[in-house]
Design brief:
2 domains; 7-stranded antiparallel sheet; 3 helices
Amino acid sequence: MERRMPAINRNFLFLGGAILLGIVASYMTVHYINNQVEVRTRATPTEMREVVVPVRDLDKGVNLTQQDIASREVPAEFVPADALTPDNYKDYIDQVLRAPLVQGAPISGSAVDRVTDHFSNLIDPGKVAYSIQVDESNSVSGLIVPGDHLDILLLMSGDDTDQIRPLLSDVPVLATGRLAKGMRNDGKNDDASYSNITLSLPPKDAQRLGMAMKVGELRVMLRSAGNGEPFDLKALSKADLLRYGRPIRGNGIQFIIGGNG
């Protein structure tokens, strides 16, 4: 007599399949989490840069000497953009500190007040120095100093064509008289009075300025420190000026009446 195999309960099959799928899912989840932890905790190599640092704390106003500095590697993220390096540090030796330095910290070029014996060394590449005459009324009462930035206006006069127009914007002042920021002071430049100022300009702007001095009068405006924003000035004529102050004509006071309240 043929024996029949006992019937398998489908519920057990479903339960077994669910358990198997749960085990596989748990394994994949654990594997994924472990991979993510490894990726996020993997140590990234730190980029290092060789810079020049002081071997001891230095006070503002002292001269930076060869004995005050050494080179060391520092993480790039802590290095200022104008940091002194073994390639450029010699340009800063025997220069005056304008800010105190901390032992072992990278030295920023802006912390050193560089001075020179030659005025031409102060002129940026691609630019020229150009001097203009000024008086008490055209130099902000003589308060302009080297390092300031100016806007220059051109005032032109003629028959019914008087006007003032912007000429140059955000122009750096290299010197007032014989006083120049960054020049070694030999005691001859202590006089603060001056009758001319020297500007740093691209050659084409210097050419324009020279012609402007022939066709009209120059007026200067002193910018606030650190302000490089354009003023968006336009030419202003005498007619424009008078038009600004012209009263509005009308037939009296106009009342606007509306609503039912």
